[in-house]
Amino acid sequence: MTLPxxxxxxxxxxxxxxxxxxxxxxxxxxxxxxLHGETGEPVRADxxxxxxxxxxxxxxxxxxxxxxxxxxxxxxxAAVRSAQRLLALMERQRTARAALYxxxxxxxxxxxxxxRWQSSSLLTKGGYERIRERAHAMSTGEDGYAPHVxxxxxxxxxxxxxxxxxxxxxxxxxQYLHLIGHSFGGRFLCEAVTWAAEAEAGRGGTLGWSTATxxxxxxxxxxxxxxxMAAPRTxxxxxxxxxxxxxxxxxxxxxxxxxxxxxxxxxxxxxxxLLGEKVSGIGRSGMRLSATPPGGLAPNDVWSTRLLRADTPxxxxxxxxxxxxxxxxxRYRSSRLNPxxxxxxxxxxxxxxxxxxxxxxxxxxxxxx
Length: 369
Description:
The protein is 29% helix and 13% strand. It is α/β, with parallel strands linked by helices. The protein is globular and about 50 Å long.
């Protein structure tokens, strides 16, 4: 993607939301371009890397870097609250049930990057479709800059991962890197990982997972989790087909599983999505693969499991797959009066347990004494 220098002095300034400890925010405009964290003005293309270096500074105390991209109907302050809510659930779950996460006993100190985009609309079918079209425009085409910007962000975070010689628990390449999205936010993350795979070159490596990685990878993401993804369930046959492994393993910088929750009570990615795109969304039915590319995954290589209760451990074999569909229908339900159903009903201890289990299994086995 060839990008012209970009600067819009007339762009509306966005009031900065105070950054809580352990969080940093990154804002995108309606084209997916990066906005300056203090002024709200678009960052010029020739200053993109410099701004990321000035704005993003992973602290040395962090063991894990989390990148969170919100979904529909989420304002700037609400995006931070959403990430804080998830992190609070994770901390309560880890404290209450520490025995489920033995590899995290040496420490789990996440540092979170909250990516914010303009996703607000009326809570109607028409409002959902308008934001769906905006998300699509931000992610694709000549003027869709979100994959380029977020791909740069992921590359920068990889380069700035802490020195493994330091005292915190880290991989050979630095701190662990986990991507978390909700709704349309998952589409941005998948596009960004695809862009990073196409734009960068380098050497990859394996982490705690068994999934093979392509030898040309620039870096690896330890896990990618999307709650109730707003994309067609066939998206990995089309838009995200580059995230399907080839004969040599992943051709994208993913060293762990891509995990997608779904609930039959999600009306936004169910009935509404079916009307608009003639196929149900991943958040309603899970993702699927159809035709098998040469040397790639077959349709039956998508693993399916249930969202487990917060006191039930996830065996490695239940998550150690390229694609994992997690049926959360028993927990993500909301109410019959909610027009979007279970689309945003993922703030539960069981969701925190899923995330912590991915963090846990990303780590290699501790050395025997």
